[in-house]
C-alpha cells in the first residue's frame, strides 16, 4: 500500500460516490464438476455469452486444481463479506442513473478470475439493456494466478464488453483507486472514456512486486499518469461525488443541434489592413479561449492528455453546459500558443468521443501554428495534425468553429469545421505568417506589411473568400 493513501473497500468506495446502491444479482454459479456427468467441452471462456453455461465447470481448487485455492477464497469471503472481487449494481450519482462496478481489493487482491468476468459481463449487459452509463471504481492487482490462463482471458471478455458498450453510445468513466495495476488498468481503467484517479493511488500496468528493482516508484502513481496524459484528473475523495455527477450529466445528454458561435468578447473594429489584423490578433489584451469558455458555459469539466504519453496546456478540451439553453457541448480550444502534437491528439480524442456520444462540438482556433521544433517532429507532429483533420472531417455530430485570434496555417485549420467556421473582428487566418511569407519570397523586412495585405487575411477577406461564414458581433451588440 502506498504510504498515507487510503485503501477503500468496495462498499466504502461506493459510499464515497452515492448513498443509494442496488446490487445486481450475481450470475448463476458454474456447475461443480462432480455434478456433471457429460464429457467436458473445452471452450474459450472469453467466447461465452452466457455466464451460466453448464459446460464451464469449477472443480476443487479451480480450473488448475491449485492446492488451497478454495480455502483462500473462503478466507477472502470471510474477511471481506464478499463472494467475489467485484461488486456490481445500479446507483444514481448526481441525478444520473448508472451501472456501478466496484472492486474489492481485500478479496485476493481484487484480481480477475472467471467469476469476476461473469459479473462484469452481466453488469455491462445490464447497462446496454437499460441504456445506462458505466462507472468503474477500480482497485485491482491484475489477473488471478490460481486460475492461470482461464483468468487472463477474462481481459478479452472485459474488453469486448467495453467495446460493445462504447459502440452502443454509452459513456464509461473509471475512478482509479489504490492500487490499479495489471489487466484491470489495461481494460476497465485505461479503456474508459474519462479517467479520474484518487490522489497517491498506485497506477500502472506493472504491479509493485514485478517492476524492475531500480524503477522509480513515483512513475507508478496517479499524479505521474496525469502528467503523462493517461489520466484526466486527480480528484480528492471529498470532491469525487460532485465531479463524477457532473461528468455523468455531461456525457449523458446528446443533442443534434449545432453549437451557435459565441459572440465576440472585444468591441474591436474591423481592421483596415492585413497587418492591422495581425496586430489585433497578437495583442496581449485580446480575449483568449479561457474567457470565451467562461462567458459561454455555465459548468464544464476537462479531459487531459493524449493517452500516448503527452499533454499540452495550450489545448483546452472538455465538455460543458451552455448558459443559454443548458445543452451539453464538447469544446477543443487553442490558447494562443503553438500547438504541440499531444494537443492535437487530445483534441482528436475529444472530437471522436463527442461524435460517439452525439454531443455537438465547438472548436476555438487561436494559434500562430503547430510547434515546429525537433521534439515536435519526433513526437509525430504531422500524424497528430492529420488525426485532427480526420476527426473533424468524419464527425457525424455537428462541429462549429470560432476563430478568436491567430489562425496560423494548417496547425489552425485542422480544428476548423468546413462550412461552419466563424471569425471575430480581432482575428486573422493565413496560409502562413506574413513574416515567414516574406522570408520565403526573399522580400526585405519592410515588405512584410504589404505581404500581409496580399495574403488577404482580414476577417472580412475571409468572408469574401468563402473561408468563414461570417463575423460574429461583439457581446454588447447582441440583442
Largest sheet: 8 strands, mixed
Number of helix segments?
Answer: 17
Determine the mean pLDDT: 91
- Using the alpha-carbon principal axes, give the shape: elongated
| Radius of gyration using CA atoms only | 26 Å
- What is the β-strand count? 16
User: In percent, how helical is the residue content?
Assistant: 25-40%
Structural class: alpha/beta
Q: What fraction of residues sit in β-strands? A: 15-25%
End-to-end distance, in Å? 59 Å
Q: Regions with pLDDT < 50 over 5+ consecutive residues? A: 30-52
Fold and architecture overview:
- Helix 3 runs parallel beside helix 5 (154-167) and helix 5 packs parallel to helix 6.
- 33% of the residues lie in helices and 19% in strands.
- The protein has helices at 10-17, 69-80, 114-129, 148-152, 154-167, 182-189, 222-227, 240-251, 274-282, 289-296, 341-357, 374-378, 381-394, 409-413, 434-440, 448-455, 459-464; strands spanning 21-23, 86-93, 96-103, 134-140, 172-181, 194-197, 203-204, 233-234, 297-303, 315-322, 328-334, 361-367, 399-408, 421-423, 428-430, 470-471.
- The radius of gyration is 26 Å and the shape is elongated.
- The strands form two sheets. Strands 1, 2, 3, 4, 5, 6, 7 and 8 form an eight-stranded mixed sheet that branches. Strands 9, 10, 11, 12, 13, 14, 15 and 16 form an eight-stranded mixed sheet that branches.
- The protein contains 17 helices and 16 strands.
- The model is unreliable at 30-52 (pLDDT under 50).
- The longest helix is centred in the C-terminal third of the chain and has 17 residues, at 341-357.
- It has 479 residues and is an alpha/beta fold.
